[in-house]
Amino acid sequence: MDAQCTVHLGPRKKRPRQTGALMASTPHDVRFQELVLYILEKKMGTSRRAFLMELARRKGFRVENELSDSVTHIVAENNSGSDVLQWLQVQNIKASSQLELLDISWLNDCLGAGKPVEMTGKHQLIVRRDFSTAASNPGLQKLPPPALQKISQYACQRRTTLNNCNCIFTEALETLAENCEFQENEGSCVAFMRAASVLKSLPFAIVSMKDTEGIPCLGDKVKCIIEEIIEDGESSEVKAVLNDERYQSFKLFTSVFGVGLKTSEKWFRMGFRTLSKIKSDKSLKFTRMQKAGFLYYEDLVSCVTRAEAEAVSVLVKEAVWACLPDAFITITGGFRRGKKIGHDVDFLITSPEVTEDEEQQILHKVTNFLENKGLLLYCDIIESTFEKFKLPSRKVDALDHFQKCFLILKLHHQRVDRGEYSQQEGKTWKAIRVDLVLCPYERRAFALLGWTGSRQFERDLRRYATHERKMMLDNHALYDKTKRIFLKAESEEEIFAHLGLDYIEPWERNA
Questions:
Q1: Angle, alpha carbons 229-234-239 (nearest 5°)
Q2: Where in the sequence numbering do the catalytic residues fall?
Q3: Whole-model pTM above 0.85?
């Protein structure tokens, strides 16, 4: 968390630990039958052990509540191999030579990989030479302190796939960030988002506060939230937010297409808490966008699948190529980053042949084509205000100036593969949100990079350009302030090269 956003907390009251039924595990499928784990409670504590057991079971590992002959691996924390063997002797249990005694770092690596990893010397526990049973466990070694690889504060220097090992923490932090956004507390919102972003990039699961050492963007408040989740399985602050009437109302209101924070604040202050009350109130005036948002609410609030996105892509390409045969059409946003579901489908359109005058008419022709086909349910075209030699914006969240249109299209069921589309009874189509962006051909690399996202990746990319390279970057251009020149780029790879960054593939930008 940035210094200005750090919240200094007083001593946190110790809460009663949750044990037994409160932390009971739900059944999970066992993927790795050959391994049977037992997590030692000694020096670990009941709540933390229960948390780790549940986490491992979610990943497909078989974890026993009690030690038995079937156990193949004992996992311990802050214990030596001698400590574990001594504990086994006290329990009157004889350790077999096949029993693996492992440090918690091995389980940590397994959880990060989502599967069992190879046991190396750094994972195996040491047994003193003079310990009476050492001869039966010759392979046990001392665990060296793990070297934490330096993690960048910038998402554009981290590779973040969709394989998030720390969902339990990132979902909590994103809830808090969303609540701060609803309260227009930008500083705290950004701080929570940065913390969630860096946790998403980790190739391992956080299982103790020791694991957070050396990780950037984790301020005092974030660490308190992580610690509470580790100890109790949930955050009291997140729980309070989820139960907060204002948060629930804003979450509901902003789910309507065309409704932002100002409108949500207005409706909340007027005493509205449900959409049905809002729609039935005759005194309220809605914009065209909001009317469409209410009319197609059930469809628009549901997720768009990849199959639906691909079906929409066919419709868009047909419409664009009918008006501009040599156009390049690229799906952007989350689907370009490899996501299987989204809330809308974004497309970038460009052509090497079109003139500036022709360019202004393209999206109008495309929407006319869609309307004539009976597929256009809503359309809002934003005309271009792009200026060729204008410096990139200093604001990291600035919108671009390209011509664009926000659409709602009618997608018929038969255009989607069977099995991947939940057909509503008696309805033959679904309303899908679609954004079309038209950019000049020489700006296509910058536009593609900007519209691919994620939001946090783009924020950090622009922040990195400004603070580390003395450059200015947005969806239109890259400007070198030292040399006072615009830097040309034909591809995303060239933009990364100008910034001195390793190229990050789209599927690694899920920050």
A1: 135
A2: 344, 346, 435
A3: no
